[in-house]
Amino acid sequence: xxxxxxxSTSPPNENPIPTTRRRWPTLSRLLPSQKLKHPRLRQIALLxxxxxxxxxxxxxxxxxxxxxxxxxxxxxxxxxxxxxxxALSPTGELVESERPxxxxxxxxxxxxxxxxxxxxxxxxGRLYTFVGEAGKASDIKEIVTLGERLLLEDVLKCxxxxxxxxxxxxxxxxxxxxxxxxxxxxxxxxxxxEVVFDNNSGLKSASETLSGVFGVKAGSLRVxxxxxxxxxxxxxxxxxxxxxxxxxxxVDSALGRLVRVTSVGVELAGARKEGxxxxxxxxxxxxxxxxxxxxxxxxxxxxxxxxxGFREVQGMxxxxxxxxxxEWVNVTGFKGLKLSxxxxxxxxxxxxxxxxxxxxxxxxxxFAGAALxxxxxxxxxxxxxxxxxxxxTFDDLHALYTSITGRTLAEFSHTAIFKDLLFRIxxxxxxxxxxxxxxxxxxxxxxVTIHRDGITITGSLKDITFGAVTITKAELDVFIGRTNxxxxxxxxxxxxxxxxxxxxxxISVSVxxxxxxGQVNWTVYGELExxxxxxRLAPKVEGTFLDLSLRxxxxxxxxxxxxxxxxxxxxxxxxxxxxxxxxxxxxxxPQLDHVSGGRVEGLVLRAAYSDRGFSFGILFPAPVTLSLxxxxxxxxxxxxxxxxxVPQLVFxxxxxxxxxxxxxxxxxxxxxxxxxxxxxxxxxxxxxxxNPLGLSENVKIGPDLAFELGIIYAVLxxxxxxxxxxxxxxxxxxxxxxxxxxxLSENPTEQLVKTxxxxxxxxxxxxxxxxxxxxxxxxxPEDLFTIKNGLFYISTGATIxxxxxxxxxxxxxxxxxxxxxxxxxxxxxxxxxxxxLFEDVALGPLVVTGTGGGKASAMIELGLAxxxxxxxxxxxxxxxxxxxxxxxxxxxxxxxxFALRVAWGDAIEVELCARVIGAADLKDLRGADFLIDMALExxxxxxxxxxxxxxxxxxxxxxxxxxxxxxxxxxxxxxAIEAQLKEAEEAFNAARDHWKxxxxxxxxxxxxxxxxxxxxxxxxQKDFYQAEKDFEAAVYSAHQKLETxxxxxxxxxxxxxxxxxxxxxxxxxEIMSCxxxxxxxxxxxxxxxxxxxxxxxxxxxxxxxxxxxxxxxEQALAAAQLEFSEAPFYxxxxxxxxxxxxxxxxxxxxxxxxxAQTILTRAQSALEQSxxxxxISKKTEKKQLLAExxxxxxxxxxxxxxxxxxxxxxxxxxxxxxxxxxxxHLQKNSSTEKVALKNKEEALTKFKSEKETQxxxxxxxxxxLSETPEFAKFEEAKSSLAMAKNAKSQLxxxxxxxxxxxxxxxxxENAGSILTKLERVFDIQHVExxxxxxxxxxxxxxxxxxxxGFIAGKxxxxxxxxxxxxxxxxxxxxxxxxxxxxxxxxxxxxxGEEAREDVAGADRFSHx
Length: 1408
Known about the structure:
Layout: H1 39-51, H2 59-67, E1 72-75, E2 78-88, E3 94-96, E4 109-117, E5 124-132, H3 133-137, E6 140-145, E7 149-151, H4 152-155, E8 168-177, E9 188-196, H5 204-212, E10 220-228, E11 241-248, E12 253-255, E13 259-261, E14 264-273, E15 282-295, E16 304-313, E17 316-322, E18 340-349, E19 359-367, E20 370-378, E21 383-392, H6 394-405, E22 416-426, E23 429-438, E24 441-450, E25 454-460, E26 464-466, E27 469-481, E28 493-502, E29 505-516, E30 519-527, E31 532-533, E32 549-558, E33 579-586, H7 590-596, E34 603-610, E35 613-619, E36 625-627, E37 632-636, E38 638-642, E39 648-657, E40 666-674, E41 678-686, E42 689-690, E43 700-712, H8 713-719, E44 724-733, E45 736-743, E46 752-761, H9 762-773, E47 786-795, E48 798-800, E49 803-805, E50 808-817, E51 820-828, E52 832-838, E53 841-843, E54 846-848, E55 856-862, E56 867-877, E57 880-891, E58 895-905, E59 908-916, E60 930-935, H10 938-1089, H11 1092-1126, H12 1132-1168, H13 1170-1227, H14 1232-1263, H15 1269-1303, H16 1308-1321, E61 1322-1332, H17 1333-1339, E62 1343-1351, E63 1354-1362, ...
Antiparallel strand pairs: 1-2, 2-3, 2-4, 4-5, 5-6, 6-8, 7-8, 8-9, 9-10, 10-11, 11-14, 12-13, 13-15, 14-15, 15-16, 16-17, 17-18, 18-19, 19-20, 20-21, 21-22, 22-23, 23-24, 24-25, 25-27, 26-27, 27-28, 28-29, 29-30, 30-32, 31-32, 32-33, 33-34, 34-35, 35-38, 36-37, 37-39, 38-39, 39-40, 40-41, ...
Helix pairs in contact: 1-2, 10-13, 10-14, 10-15, 10-16, 11-12, 15-18
């Protein structure tokens, strides 16, 4: 409301007096005359008055004038007629007092009244001047009343002919006063009167406006105005401008649906306008209306209180409402939204109702460091106010949000640029629309909306390309919520929504970005509405076992791996990888269950897209391993779907393969291709396998080892082992590159490294042997031999099947040697040994064959210091067969030698040794010749001597008894010898048979024990291996149980975590839904009732302030009334006016209080209305529902967490049990399989110990066969047989001697004596054989036998021929040679009994 006027208001007259000149006399009412006393004094006073002008500060002079009863006096230059002392009647009227007695002393203060002429016109008025203390005490100095009814032009002649000239006035008056700070009155001349509104004066239009617009019936209105600082009653009153104002109090008039007027003030204003030449000045007169109004505003039930101005301009109404110096707060329900300089302006034709007009609304708002000049429209149908914002920052928006909500926003890490925005406030809230760029994504028509729980930014974007993904119909979607957790209707975040057309599918997606490490990480995410089959992405799998059903399909594209914050939108918790991919949930895959040995659930298919199309991988909820028995284990599996012509599942992992001879396993990268029934694996180790099977640190297989694996699901399920397993790799044997294969068995001792080759030189072989021996073994001639079509083995010393593979490296294959190819067996090491059998080996003139029609045996030994080829077999020399042992030496120097064992006589053999003549070609020995150069052994010499003695005996008989005696002796001896020989042969045969039986018995016992041992060992080993397999199968099964338990644990935890995540997600979604509903309810309530509670508090505060103001003004009125009651009489007049002013102020304050109370009542009424209460109840119910949802959801989460704890505990117990079972199997003897294995092992050990003891005993018996009585008897019989045979041989020699004597008989007289002496001195000490083997064999040239010895002390040395197999002939030749020497003069040396001891003159024979 407007401030109170300086004059009191009066109600309009019921019957206003016509304002014509006839009805409104211009003569003032004169005060009645009073009887004058002391005429003399009066004359003196009149004389003084004529001579000087009095002053209110001279009460004595004025009082004396009154005592003299003068008819006039001059006061401050103004002539006053009929001056009188004035008093205030009990009714408040000014009345004239009697003339004061002449003898009275003047009072300190009084009021002088009299008639004056005003403003140099005929206008008469009654002047009341406050004199003395009355003037000093009061701010009112003079009052001039003009009569009861006048026209305004009577008072202000300058208004004659103006629009206001005929305006009727009731009880007009002037007051000249000093400043009154308590009432806020300016010093100077004031005018107040009642103005009459009728249709016959210049206020006709104003009267129509009052009644037509404001609903105020025309009447009179007390107005007042200020006319300047000067007091010039005698001069024409021509103010430059004037303004008379008054207020109709108690008005309550609705101006349409928006505005309600609570007071109507009227201002009659005039401004002097100087006329042109010869024209007098004129006044432009206007009527304006003002007052207080209540404006209904959107989003509030409490009206906005404004000051208004209303006037007519050129036939149009101008209606202006302003807020003045205060602010419009809580705009559209935002508690802190404040607008200053608020103005509503409407201009409309007079004939148009104000209720249908639109207001032009303007205001100012502090934003972005500047004052926004907002402009808009307010009408019953429309409300908005807006302004352009060239640029602003997110911080500016944050500051605005904080200022209007009192809250702060969550951190926004994205780069945001705002340009050319339109700031707008309307009934729905507060928005900014325009050009917005976030992280380089520009929306030229974006909308920033400020909500109570945060800020949203939306807008259309151009098509956006992220990598290989193009988003059409892109929309910006940003929400920055307040920092209070759990109070926003959605999660804070930045995203772009739109459509992606990919692989003939339209997918609704959203883009989420995050600024990290100086770059923007983006993720495109969208979920398909329906499930798919894998053939939708890979048509080749249609109709196959891999046409998997895909559930919960999501499209994901990103420029980084595992970006942060994806859990906010990635509801299925799929892995996010760089590139484009589809992810989906899978049911169980049977082939995976077969391979892993357990059920695997919670699978996720990841279809990654590239230029080559899709690649499909299957992800596990937890690491899954591949167990292929005790020797092959794997790392975590990864699984891929290969959509080729024949679709397959491909497993990849790392395989650890245990190999014999080393602690660390071999580690392969491994792949397994699986179809519906089986799987085949392939692997590779990109490194060397050093020291394979403990062979040598210098030997390595590689650099790439290939692994092979075959699985038949049914076999794997029943045995736990694959159907095929092994690996291969490169091996350099010297310069020969080979590819080895490693066969892995369930039994670690049966592991074997093998390779094949077509050709291997002796150089490569020895180089490889040098690596094994860690020595530099000399390399034989490269062309010595060649190994072809070989199989190379590395073993720890294993028997696989019936084949034994010696420890270390070995070779089986063909060898090219001696001009032929044959099989070989070779062990490679410090000394490489090769064994081979040959058909016929030409050794010079000899052909070496095997004994008994077999093959010749060759042993090649290639070592550090000695290298040779050893050849064993038999040869035929003439008709005789002889065993041969040849040595073809390479180191220390090349050489060839051999030894032949041939028969010398009955039961006697001789060893002939030969050495190659010259250099020999080891590859072809056919052309070699050998020199036989050897000495006969002692037993041969003994044989010769024995035969010689037999001959000597026969010759003696012959010489002594003649031929008949000799023949008789021969026959007798022959019979005895033959009988003896027969007896010896029979004894020998019996002893031999007995010995053979004994030997057979012992050897059969040994063979039986060995056979029994081998059979029993094989059986027990089978049992042991079976027990070992059962144990390993049990361990494998336990491991599988453990693996399954672990998988089940992860699956259970994953499932429960998924349920937990789902529960949390659903709870969050329900909370968000409730919060959104609550926010919507708040928004609806704010739109209907605004910040009612806050407005209610403001209204209560306004009522309190208004009441305080009423109380203050009433206290001021009471103080003024008290002052009036206690003041001297001369103060009654001015104090009565002051009291009237205070009464007016109290009235105005009460009007303001009433207005505030009305607003409060309205707010309270709105608070109590069913709509607001319903909204509050609805909000309360929703909050209660939110609390219930939180409670129920949190309970569900707690139950799920408890279930998770239970699942973890139960599965941990299962895992612990499985681990304990493995521990029992491995460490303890509690498992059945471990006990059975131990029992089998103990039985095997015991059996081996017992049998080995038995065999050792039997072997010792066999080894000591030569010590048995049977062998002694056999040897004795053999010796007896040899003696008998020797005797027979001697018999033959005797015959030869007799024949010799018959041919060359010496003189009888001294023959006997000579023989006796020679028999005693005959001593053959040395016989050497010498000759060419080739000459002997091919030309028949016999060997030369050089005989050395002594006869009767005389050394002999002669040469005889010796042919192999003709030992008798050799002996006969020896005797002939002796007899020839004897007959040729050797006998001359013996003469009678005095024969000399020495034999002289013997010829020496040269050696051929």
